[in-house]
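Lecture notes, unit on protein representations.

Consider one protein chain, 182 amino acids long.
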Amino acid sequence: MDGCRVVGVETSLGTFRATKIIDAAGGNHWLAQQLGLEIQYHSPRLIAYYGYVTGECSARDIAPAIVADSCGWTWTAKVRCLQRATPTQLYQWTRLSFGTQKIPKDWLPNEFLGLKIFQRMRASDVSWRIVSQSAGSGYFIVGDAAMILDPTSSHGVLKAIMSGIWVSHSIASEFVGNLTEL
């Protein structure tokens, strides 16, 4: 910081100065935390659990599925075919339960019971939230670092790309004199 302006990043490899800093580091909101920016929540706490299995599930070979129930929803899909001595399919699942309900660490969707766990279950906070000020003196915050919205809308990657395009356009416009910083 130089006064109220972000002027670089300090890392374990040293200090890197720049005229613009773009935080695209994801949902931990690193720069927002460093600057003390407000993060506004627009949903209760939502934790998505996910994992990968291998084997054969012909229903998912045809199409992915998202199934809702009274406690949340489960998404399952074939990700790819693993080329090994015997080709096998790789499937991914995501489970979001409403409320604070945790799922057991060995939980699998019914259609994947009997398949081999490929990667241990992980969890991600997908609570809807937005950083109150995603641009300021010397910085921009983009993608999940700026906002996280409903994961079932399937537009997260598109919104991240669009926010990156918007930032690059804004920086270029400022560089050529068509836009001034805040």
